[in-house]
Fold each of these.
Amino acid sequence: MLARALLILCASLAFACGPVATAPDAASSVAACASCHPDHARDHSRSRHANAANGALYRALRDASAVGTRSFCDSCHRPEVGTSDGLSCESCHQAIGNFGTSNARLRWDRSGAVTSARQESVATRAHGTRFHGFLPTADLCGTCHEVEGPGAFRETPFTEWQRSPAAQRGDTCVSCHGSPTPGRASPRPMAPAAVDPIAPSPDRARTDHRFVGPDDDTESAARLLVGSATVSVRREGAEAVVTVTSLVTGHALPTGVRAVRELWLEVTTVDRAGRSTIVSGALDGEQRLAQPPSGAPWIALHDELSPGLPTEATIVRVRALEPTQSVSARFAIAGETALVRARLRYRAQSQSLRLALGLEGPPPEPIDVASVETPW
Ligand code: HEC
Ligand code: HEC
Ligand code: HEC
Ligand code: HEC
Ligand code: HEC
């Protein structure tokens, strides 16, 4: 009774109550959809979306946050009351707008048919469908993928995308992240969107619901990340000038939750006897990426934070590359050198952060986004 009265009050004051208060129980929804949409349900349940509230790093950081902040984390990572692990199908397929493109301010209509990107609506045994212009937009994704705080939890893919070459071409988040080639727009495979034995469905262009990201398994994450940048080495006397250039046209490199990521340049020299020395970007015995003494050359593209956990820290400097932007640094090369190697490496989780939170085991394997070898 009270819950119902609260819901009605919230419906009329939706902005003040926010999305968490208006979302009904959706715990079993994915299972309910799986019988007729087995591919979508399988891809979704393997995605980070379905598991957004059960990552070890996420849970540790949420637990380390002030009690009052935790419901803010939940508003994106577990938006449906009663869903313990993450997003459900309805998190996107009943969203009909927002109160602003950031901080999870989604607006849902729970009463109606599921939303579809196709003009033509279909009546099925389980539900109706209706075209909704919000579903295929970057605004849907951006409402969660644009975070204004607290602390260093600033994420800005949506505003980066708005001023990107991809947006000018008409490519949205789904063009690149719902395609069969993660991070690159490409033609969609055709297959039935539903498997209902009573009413066979025609072929439709299909959206990959894995939405692969850097927190997926190493092989999938590599498909997204490898080739997102180039690295080149130019000799100037006894110095190597190394340049990193972003090839990403949809937003900055890296984007999203840069406060927990690492993207850095490793430079190695190999002498004539085959001995190699890491000149910049080495990991220490505990697998931490150590910043060199101030003034020494290095290239790191994740955010530089003031000390503290990302929930408390402030961003000292955003070092990410805008689309097609480059950054260079000069490294002194020893006389005996025969070969210079440079590679841009990505780690989904900073080991310093993992250790500060008491997480055990090694961090995710680094992925080589781009690399080059030059005889010296
Ligand atoms: C009894 C089978 C059945 C169940 C259960 C079911 N659907 Fe469907 N759904 C269909 C059929 C049939 C279509 C129409 C497919 C077509 O014509 O392309 C459809 C279409 C859709 C579409 C629109 C596809 C388009 O045209 O763009 C969406 C979105 C959708 N379903 C989501 C869901 C969600 C979310 C659930 C769970 C809450 C669900 N469905 C449960 C049978 C089902
Ligand atoms: C032109 C294709 C393209 C478009 C459009 C695009 N992305 Fe990406 N996205 C990529 C590529 C390539 C990567 C991997 C390189 C990187 O991390 O920037 C990526 C990575 C990401 C990541 C992983 C975080 C990271 O950088 O490590 C997130 C999150 C993301 N994109 C969200 C979005 C959102 C949200 C939108 C829409 C506002 C969007 N993307 C639009 C291509 C695209
Ligand atoms: C993160 C948001 C999101 C979630 C979660 C999500 N979908 Fe979708 N879905 C979309 C978008 C966006 C499209 C339409 C893309 C387009 O056509 O531009 C879509 C399209 C579809 C379609 C039409 C056919 C196709 O492949 O394009 C079906 C059916 C569907 N979704 C079912 C589901 C089911 C079932 C679930 C849960 C298991 C689910 N979706 C979860 C965003 C989502
Ligand atoms: C209700 C909020 C919400 C919506 C809407 C949403 N996302 Fe997400 N998305 C998240 C959260 C939270 C994560 C982080 C999951 C985790 O903990 O790894 C995520 C992760 C991702 C990742 C993987 C990044 C990684 O951590 O590996 C991609 C890619 C992505 N989303 C793309 C999209 C696209 C494209 C859309 C729009 C169709 C979209 N998202 C809509 C909340 C949302
Ligand atoms: C407005 C939405 C939103 C809020 C609020 C939010 N996040 Fe996220 N979070 C995201 C999205 C979207 C991603 C995926 C971005 C990416 O992969 O770059 C993400 C990714 C993460 C990741 C990396 C993926 C993983 O699971 O390890 C961590 C850790 C994280 N968030 C922790 C938190 C914590 C702790 C809070 C609360 C203090 C919080 N987030 C609040 C949207 C949000």
Amino acid sequence: MTTALAILLAGLACAGLIAVYTVLLDSPPLPSGGAARAGLVALIPPDLPDGQVYELGCGWGDLALDLAKAMPERRVVAVEASPLPWLVAKLRALGRKNLSVRWGRIEALDLSDAALVAAYLGPKPMTRLSDKLRTELPPQSVFLSNGFALADLTPERMVNLPTPVTTTLYRYRMREAA
Ligand SMILES: C[S@@+](CC[C@H](N)C(=O)[O-])C[C@H]1O[C@@H](n2cnc3c(N)ncnc32)[C@H](O)[C@@H]1O
């Protein structure tokens, strides 16, 4: 087998693996753009309670790295189930002491010690996760979402980004579960 053929097959295997996980998770590993990441960081309120920061579905690690840089005093935990993006995010986090990148499903995380949770997911994963977020996140903790609203909760703040396709950023302040 020639080197070129081996590279082509490896590339196809990687693309296939990404495609399979995109279908399984209803979400491609599409990174938040620079403006969205900066907008989410700007939405971090000064009065966060004690606790950890979580990035749900961190993809290649772009947003998780920005969160870890913005909050060097906090431990940031990022989780990703798609193997290749997880590996890249894990390697990118090596120099960042306050960021750990875990391979696994968001559903398996215990978010009860969260101060802030950030995500850029999609309509189906957001619907699946909304009960978990509402019941598990402590009162006064903050949920930031790029592009997708949480059903039945009113955001504390919304920012529309004038990117080519209008994107809305949401900030929710969690209350006692009813
Ligand atoms: C649109 S990308 C966002 C990547 C990154 N958060 C960012 O903003 O740059 C969503 C990521 O969430 C991951 N994901 C979706 N559902 C998941 C789940 N239930 N558990 C773990 N990862 C999940 C996908 O594999 C994908 O990489």
